[in-house]
């Protein structure tokens, strides 16, 4: 029974990783490629580690497998975010099928200031700089 | 968070008192500590609401795994079939998360759901810019993101 479960999990994990690889080749631009790699990659690794945990079924292995899943789930999106963000601001062109870009209009390449579009309804200072926002947020913590 | 540390401390105390350092005994001690904290939380303001948190965490994990699988299938279908069904774009998502920790967690989980990738936060921490793969219905996407954020904040707060 566990044999079947382990095989199914391993196959699904490997299939997801294959999918991520195909995605890197097929998808047209940087952000969409990041979509394919991070999610399918992370979920694929998670499934394979679950399979490992089921196969060995020992405390030492299971805890390590769970730790690996936790760390991948914590780090994969951060890496994807940093790569995607760097690519965007360096000016890697988006795919021509991209239908909307809200970020372009609110970003000022001179000052690197990113507007939210909500500055007008902020209570007092309209153009709140990051420092003042941080100072305001601190006492709440 | 404090409640969780107390729970681990109680479990360690149980392990030390029984003298059996196995994982199963630790789990049992943890369950006992959880019960003790659930009873004691009405008297102790520092750990109030701790016992309600674990079911919430489990519910969030279940919900999130379901979302993850659903959205993965969607992206997988688009990668494998020749014509592109995707309509990618960058949208602004107004955050209800306030502190930097909350924003980090929300951005992380939004990045983990396939089809959305958080790109940047506006300088005043009020809007998250997200690259989405399927922008056919922006309102629906925003509602889904809102659902993820609401459930996550329920766990964190």
Automatic annotation (TrEMBL), chain A:
GO molecular function: sodium:proton antiporter activity
Keywords, sorted A to Z: Membrane, Transmembrane, Transmembrane helix
UniProt keyword Transmembrane helix present: yes
TM region(s), chain numbering: 6-28, 40-57, 63-83
Region (Disordered): 117-141
InterPro entries, sorted: PhaG_MnhG_YufB
Compositional bias annotation for Basic residues: 127-141
Record-given protein name: Monovalent cation/proton antiporter subunit MnhG/PhaG
Species assigned in the record: Methylophaga lonarensis MPL
Domain of life, per lineage: Bacteria
Keyword Membrane appears in the UniProt entry: yes
Pfam families recorded: PhaG_MnhG_YufB (PF03334)
UniProtKB/TrEMBL annotation, chain B:
Full protein name: Monovalent cation/H+ antiporter subunit E
Subcellular location per the Swiss-Prot or TrEMBL entry: Cell membrane
Leader peptide range in chain numbering: none
Organismal lineage: Bacteria, Pseudomonadati, Pseudomonadota, Gammaproteobacteria, Thiotrichales
InterPro entries, sorted: Cation_antiport_E
Membrane topology listed for this record: Multi-pass membrane protein
GO molecular function annotation: monoatomic cation transmembrane transporter activity
Biological source species: Methylophaga lonarensis MPL
Family membership: Belongs to the CPA3 antiporters (TC 2.A.63) subunit E family.
Cellular-component GO terms for this entry: plasma membrane
Record has Transmembrane as a keyword: yes
Keyword Transmembrane tagged: yes
Major subcellular site: membrane
One Pfam family per UniProt: MNHE
Sorted UniProt keywords: Cell membrane, Membrane, Transmembrane, Transmembrane helix
């Amino acid at each position: 029974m566990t044999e079947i479960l382990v095989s199914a999990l391993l196959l699904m994990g490997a299939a997801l990783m294959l999918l991520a690889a195909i995605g890197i080749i097929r998808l047209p631009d940087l952000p969409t490629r990041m979509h394919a790699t991070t999610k399918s990659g992370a979920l694929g690794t998670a499934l394979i580690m679950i399979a490992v945990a089921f196969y060995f079924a020992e405390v030492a292995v299971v805890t390590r497998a769970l730790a690996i899943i936790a760390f991948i789930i914590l780090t994969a999106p951060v890496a994807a975010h940093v790569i995607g963000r760097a690519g965007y601001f360096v000016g890697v062109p988006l795919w021509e099928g991209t239908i909307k870009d809200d970020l372009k209009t609110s970003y000022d390449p001179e000052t690197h200031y990113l507007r939210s579009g909500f500055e007008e309804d902020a209570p007092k200072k309209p153009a709140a700089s990051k420092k003042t926002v941080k100072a305001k947020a601190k006492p709440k913590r | 968070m404090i409640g969780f540390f107390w729970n681990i401390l109680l479990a360690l105390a149980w392990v030390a008192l029984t003298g059996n350092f196995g994982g199963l005994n630790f789990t049992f001690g943890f369950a006992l500590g959880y019960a003790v904290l659930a009873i004691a939380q009405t008297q102790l303001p520092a750990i109030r609401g701790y016992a309600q948190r674990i079911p919430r965490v489990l519910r969030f994990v279940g919900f999130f795994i379901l979302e993850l699988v659903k959205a993965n299938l969607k992206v997988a279908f688009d990668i494998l079939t020749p014509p592109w069904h995707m309509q990618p774009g960058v949208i602004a998502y107004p955050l209800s998360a306030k502190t930097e920790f909350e924003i980090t967690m929300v951005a992380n989980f939004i990045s983990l759901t396939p089809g959305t990738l958080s790109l940047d936060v506006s300088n005043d921490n009020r809007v998250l810019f997200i690259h989405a793969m399927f922008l056919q219905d922006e309102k629906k996407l925003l509602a889904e993101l809102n659902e993820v954020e609401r459930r996550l904040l329920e766990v964190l707060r």
